[in-house]
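Quick one - inputs below.
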Amino acid sequence: MGDSMPSFRQNKKTIFMLVFPGFALFLFAVLFPIGLSIYYALTDWSGIGSLNFIGLENFKHAFQDRIFWKSIKNAATLALLTVTIQHPIAFLFALLLDRIGGKVEKMFKTIFFIPCVISIMVTSKMWVSIYNAQYGLLNKVLTLLQLGFLKQQWLGDPGIVLYSLILIMMWQGFGWAVLIYYAGVKSLPEDVFEASRIDGANRLQTLFYITIPLLQPVIAVNVIWAIISSLKQMETIYLTTNGGPGNASQFLANYLYIKAFDAYEFGYGNAISVLFVVVCLITTVVLNKFFKKDFY
Amino acid sequence: MRFSSKSLVFLLALTLILSAGNSFKVAGANKVTIKFFSNLPDRTAGQGRLEQLLIENYMKANPHVEVKVEALQDEPYKQKFRVYTAGNQLPDLFMVWGQPAFFDPIMKGGYAAELNRNDYKDYGFFPGSLDGFSMNGKLYGLARNTDLMVLYYNEKLFKDNGIQVPTDYDQLVTAVKAFRKLGITPIAQNGRDSWVLNILYQDLVIKESGDQSLIYKAIDQKEKFAYHKHLLAAAQDLEELVKIGIFQDSFIAADYGAARNLFGQEMAAMFYMGSWETGLAVDENFSASFRNNVSVVAFPGMKGQGKGRTTDMMGWFGGGYAVSSSSPVKEEAIKLINYIMAPENWAKNAWQLGLVIPGQKYDQFMTGNENKLQLQISKILNKATSFSGTPWNDAATPGFKVDSQTIIQEFAAGMKDPAKFLEACDQAARKAKQ
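Output:
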């Protein structure tokens, strides 16, 4: 006992030494800013001068703010379309890549990943040019293909601007989605597939009864990541439409930025950011539960 | 090579003595460092070059002063300015927009140092130019330029197509329709920035009512936007202009550079923009054909009793400088601002280099070498019978600025009709008054 006390104490010290840097970083980089954000969310601070405590007024205001809800709806649309359109295509391409093999596989893997390594600033501005109504590539190609009737004001029409932006964001994130599915497919054990072939399973049966169930952890991670990314979307919006026309393509992160830094409603901007964190947390918990219940 | 311990000690001692000597020298000369925060990041061309040149000249004349410049583009500038203000760490001398949405909270919060009005009685500031930089009779900043909204146009496109340059509103509508028929964009517009749409709406209000104060009364809710005869008429005008295709397709998504390029590449006949664009006539990025053909007129007025004339203009004094009230080198910073804004420095050079229309009298600096646009705008300015003052989106709170710019963008994009637009303006104005 006497011998174990110092070593226990020493252990405590070691544990503290090892945990402290990480904990301190978490405290100052995550918890402290969130705490500060909650504090400011309860005030009417403009960012300049004095502040007054106004209780939950900012939160009440957020619930009545149609742009707040519009931003959430836009994020939900993005998440839904990402999961239902981008992901099945990415999954298919991951499977195809795996089948092709050799140099072509490597080449396509690189090609798919190129948009992910180019700065969002560059790709966003490139898409703004592609969508340009006068000299943009998209309308020019449509005219060339005798499909002039399909020409649109891609970023100027409030009815379609959101979908134009969603296409950009899907394109930007496509490489990541493919890469994660591809890594998953590559890690599957070959013997299971061999056994299924011996049992006489065809390709579709192998896909639905072996590949997809085995890939469920990867699918779960990829889907959760896609949904959370949809909620957090900011850069592409800021660089293309800034949420316009009006607020037709507004997203939460961009909206809170406008409120805090353009409208000088720092308190309200913080209230939105707190709600933003809450929405992200709830979504993560719900998705985790959903995937655990259904697949593991 | 090896050092003996003696020579090492000697070297160390020598270093200490030299560094001590150096610090004595600095302390003896009373070296002053002024932090200068600017919105002109290009220090090699345009207004940024002039600002840098004046700072360097000042440092030469005052060797004890060192000026450290930090410069960012307008939007990042505003963000960082805000961060500095929130931390009460504003640089010693900084650029400000003399408009209530930007400068009022700074003056009210006591962040800007008071300047002595008497120091500037020989500076030749235009009447009213310092209003946006003053509060309760006290002066807190100095205006750099005069901003006037005008209609740049391409002479060749008008001439080749037999279209008359508009001198009244009806002619503008005729010209717009004619250009549209020919597949040429009538006016290049940066609708993504939305403030130009706010300014155009105010211009139409002035032309419909002949009353420069009407829109400010509405912001103050002494008049209602909905459904004041003239405010409604101006909204209907704007709606009609958009319908007949006054701007390029998808103008709502176009930013400043895109609209400017459209005009510079002779794909648009006109460009509704401020007097700060006199440099278009000498911009090497555009063709010689464009540079020779670019010209400017005032935005056309309306015919009829009680209507605004072409000489009732959108004009205001925008950017300028102020000094931080908490600056440890306040007196030195005020000396620097006084030097930069001395008429023979900013006004003379800004005019003679063809950069902007100064906020001070510049007749005495005319050389005869001015570019065409400078002279034309100067004439327009001299003929003007009334000026608007701060554009309405900048005339109240920062929140009103965001709201009014969003509302006008929604309206121009067809998401709101004139009645809904006016109701939304009232709502924003009421919110700003709370």
